[in-house]
Amino acid sequence: MPIGRIAQLSDFHFVRQLTHEKRAFYKKGRAKGHCFSRLVALARQMDRLERLDGRFDAVLCTGDLATDGSPAALATCLSYIENEEVRAGEPSQAYTLGLNASAQRRLLLPGNHDRWTRKYAGFQVQGAAFERALGLPTEYPYVVGLRGQGTANEPDESAILFFVFDSTPGVFVNFWWWDRLARGRLEHGALDSFMRKARAIQDDGIVRNLGGGADLRVRYSNCVRVALLHHHPFDRHGTTLMENSTEFKEFCTRAGIHVVLFGHEHKEYRAQDFGASELAPDPNHQTVYFCCPSASEYSSAHGFYEFTFDSIGFDFTFHKWRNMQFEPGGIDENSFLPGAPQRYPFSRTLQ
Questions:
Q1: Which residue segment(s) compose the domain that 169 sits in?
Q2: Which tens digit of pLDDT belongs to each residue from 51-79?
Q3: Helix (H) or strand (E) holding 14
Q4: What is the rounded distance in angstroms from the CA atom of residue 283 to the CA atom of residue 275?
Q5: What is the CATH number of the domain that holds 91?
Q6: CA neighbor of 165 nearest in space, from 71, 60, 50, 254
Q7: What is the three-class DSSP state of 261?
Q8: Average pLDDT of the chain?
Q9: DSSP-derived secondary structure letter, 215
Q10: Is residue 192 one of the residues assigned to a domain?
């Protein structure tokens, strides 16, 4: 029986103007803006999937939602994500469908571009402008749970736990070089906090409900455990590999994380890791890592992910932009595989 169905999108790179398309946003430098035609096609594909199979229980956006972190770009982003239709003008015109993802069924993460405050030279600054603009928590990491509507709020009913990280470099990091801006990191204290929160859920059996209302009563070993961040702990290019990726992967194994979802690299791939889990005891626990390409940055590969979790594993579909539309398929470590879905079993059944 399905526990939950989620969509992951990443790296929209919104700019202020909704209809921006196919031209550089910066006059200098490498950063580009979003492509409006991709946004139209993406919203249509998401709408089609929800009409065929029902609404996604959660929509996850793993960073770089804006290109320069400006209030105007974030406002464009929020309008697209939360509305059924994106309208402008007086009288208003509908320019595209939106994702129609309310605050009760979405998780939005910051990326390095979301911390920028200048249009032409990319400098990151500390501050919670991203979180304030999008109505998000301002302390990381945090954990929320998801359980399907109509399911009893009892520990015997499985749920999904989302561990949400901010992997943009912290206040004590110097921002001198491009690779340091691009690499990201998770502080040691953030990883310790991650384990404390996981142990608290294991001990107390309580987690905040993403959908609002009463906290969820859960059993840690009976939950699908998902970690979300922007920067990549696996990478084909060392210059953008998250600085302390090895430590992060060790903590994910110890906490019994099943799936790690991230973006940043603007290409699709998967990897897996094995090790001994402490909190969901398993001597050979498997964690699967998925890098999501850009949703709409105009010069990149494009696509998004669809996951359906149950107590044994999950079905996975990668929707890739090909032939001027999003085509469903799968991926191996490096290539698109026509046909969907793919099946990934957990190393141990939820119990």
A1: 4-345
A2: 999 999 999 999 999 988 889 999 999 99
A3: none
A4: 6
A5: 3.60.21.10
A6: 60
A7: strand
A8: 90
A9: P
A10: yes
